[in-house]
Amino acid sequence: MAFEGLAQRLQGTLQKIKGKGKISEADVKEMMREVRFALIEADVNLKVVKEFVKTVSERAVGQDVMKSLTPGQQVVKIVKDELTNLMGGEQNPIQFARKSPTVIMMVGLQGAGKTTTTGKLATVLRKRHNKKPLLVAADIYRPAAIQQLETIGKQLTLPVFSLGTDVSPVEIVRQALEEAGKEHHDVVIIDTAGRLHVDEKLMQELKDIQTLSKPDEVFLVVDAMTGQDAVNVAKSFDELLGITGVVLTKLDGDTRGGAALSIRSVTQKPIKFVGMGEKMDALEPFHPERMASRILGMGDVMSLIEKAQENVDEEKAKELEQKFRTQTFTLDDFLDQLQQVKKMGPLDEILKMMPGFNKIKGLENAQVDESQMGRVEAVIRSMTIAERTTPEIINANRKKRIAKGSGTSIQEVNRLLKQFEEMKKMVKQMTNMQQKGKKKMKMPGFDSFFR
Amino acid sequence: MSFFKKLKEKITGTNETVTEKFKDGLTKTRDSFTSKVNDLVARFREVDEDFFEELEELLLQADVGVETVMELVDQLRWEVKRKNIKNTDGIQSVISEKLVEIYKAGEELDANLNMQDDLTVILMVGVNGVGKTTTIGKLAARLKEEGKTVMLAAGDTFRAGAIDQLVVWGERVGVEVIRQSEGSDPAAVMYDAIRAAKNRKVDVLICDTAGRLQNKVNLMNELEKVHRVIGKEIEGAPHEVLLALDATTGQNALIQAQTFKEATNVTGIVLTKLDGTAKGGIVLAIRNKLNIPVKFVGLGEGMDDLQPFDPEKYVYGLFAEGLEEEAWE
Ligand SMILES: Nc1nc2c(ncn2[C@@H]2O[C@H](COP(=O)(O)OP(=O)(O)OP(=O)(O)O)[C@@H](O)[C@H]2O)c(=O)[nH]1
Ligand SMILES: Nc1nc2c(ncn2[C@@H]2O[C@H](COP(=O)(O)OP(=O)(O)OP(=O)(O)O)[C@@H](O)[C@H]2O)c(=O)[nH]1
Ligand SMILES: [Mg+2]
Ligand SMILES: [Mg+2]
Predict the structure, then answer these.
(1) ipTM score of the complex?
(2) Nearest to B37 by CA among B115, B98, B117
């Protein structure tokens, strides 16, 4: 029941506006309806979606369609670029205090992942920044919250400061800072209790902790699965505390994570890290572009489009299509085709970027045999020009020669010739179909490279 | 008698405190939601396309999800046409009725737990941090109050402090917790716990499990195994598999429900954290598509913050305040 990504959603609409040179207002309007739904299904807040769609529409109308793209692809690209933009530039590093210790405060709703992220962050600080962090157990409410942090501290062999559950969190933090001074900790991470943004009493407690400890960073920890409410949560925490950054947790799940965009647009604060698992090393920097693709549910389809854009020669592709039509496709053209595909990068990678590829039954484990491609190339290269254009003349003797020349076997030469024949047949059927349905040409012969 | 009068009578006629508690917890939810519905009604004299569009948006912002919202609003359009409603006065009740209807989908749902004469085993499942362990504590308190003897199984042997957390809840409620050390096989904990529960002849055994994201194949397999082990020890067990869903969660909750249902045959949902401002509207979609009923709602972190889910009250809580006010004026 995974939701359709934008690319799938747009397919119907795209068909209609194929082959136009400019993007018209009507095209944009129709496509933006789908963009709107795709974003809502990705849990982007409705108001944020509306604003976004407005901006993108304005940008898209009247744009020239890039030579290598269809108008639809172009719109998808604009949407994604804009989304990437909004999500912020490169990730900001942690803000360290001029005078030690740097104080980091973790805040957020219940169960968002604050305590776990406290441990992960300490790991990063120690490993990457050579710091000596002190973890502070300031959650006196949740049952066994202190034990949880202490267990994490033990796992990481990092000190945890706690005073049990009978001392107020503000007092705990006060004493922790003293301790940090004495023990020369250069970073103090305060794990606060989860709380609702509408719980005035507990929100005030956070404010008190902040006033006392003057943190250099206040990280709002947000579950990536959060829905429409993310804006209310982010806004409340930000208004009260002036958060300095966001950590998006549980991104190792299969949620689209539209909350990222919502939070970003209501707070304008950077998303600094993403949680990618329960283990202590599962904290990664935030990548706006990846997040944008994810929200749009298109794998890395844009990178794919871009790769194709860079590498596939449009004129050549047209020529090839013509050859298909007129049935004058030769082994030489086949070789050409291979080159083009190869230029796009490792096939496995390309396929991985295609959304939904891993969902095709039976293909989950398909591996692209690249060495096979090299061998095919070698075989064709060992043929004479005449052989390449009219493979029918290749008799047993010629086969022997070709096999020897390419360092392959007669069987391999046979296999290639057979594949080529089949491909031609297929192409014939396809062109027949095309005359009726006018479907987009597929890269021929691709399946022979799957084991 | 109108739907709301009936509903009101039904509610005031029944357990007052439960209703109050439920309504209290829903106050924030209701305030924002109802005031929006009221705004909507006030702004539109006529039920036209703009009206439906606004309504659509209102529901989308409650996390109901595009598909279910479309369906609902289409049905409303039809209903309005059929009943020839021209102004917005009558629309609120139609909306609420429709929501309840969508939720029920024609059948009366049994929100009660499937209790056995001897040992009832309840398995709690869900993704990370949604409130499984807390719900177990609350549920144990509820059942104990009803006079049942309860035992808990600390099946989350993975997360730091998870066992301690359940043990604290056990102490709070005054029920025994069967535990092994951190890192041990959860299936073995369940096996132990079932034997202990049988020996002590308790009425209900509630089993905690570690939070897991539904796309983690290994962890879902582990959960299936836990489920199987319980079934091997007692035929027909677990008698309830409760999926904890966080009301704050958006559309992913639907995939959660589907995947956990496939792995463990989920019998009911506990919608947690409904005391916040999130609406948990996705349960409408889940009910609609997967036919899993919500059995309880979590309205806070305290021991008595678990209430049975009643779709009529739920919808009433979302919409009815405005109507009530009108009636009093
Ligand atoms: N899969 C996954 N699980 C995570 C991630 N971050 C946290 N968790 C899990 O989410 C659950 C809740 O995490 P906690 O760190 O206890 O959350 P918290 O915000 O401290 O919770 P409270 O203190 O109760 O408010 C635990 O099961 C964690 O293991 C993540 O990035 N990925
Ligand atoms: N406000 C509110 N908080 C809740 C509710 N239910 C649980 N919580 C809080 O949510 C946080 C996580 O709850 P847990 O019971 O630890 O969640 P869990 O699903 O067992 O988490 P993992 O075992 O780590 O996957 C805790 O801080 C709870 O106090 C609720 O109904 N309302
Ligand atoms: Mg915590
Ligand atoms: Mg738990």
Answers:
(1) 0.85
(2) B98
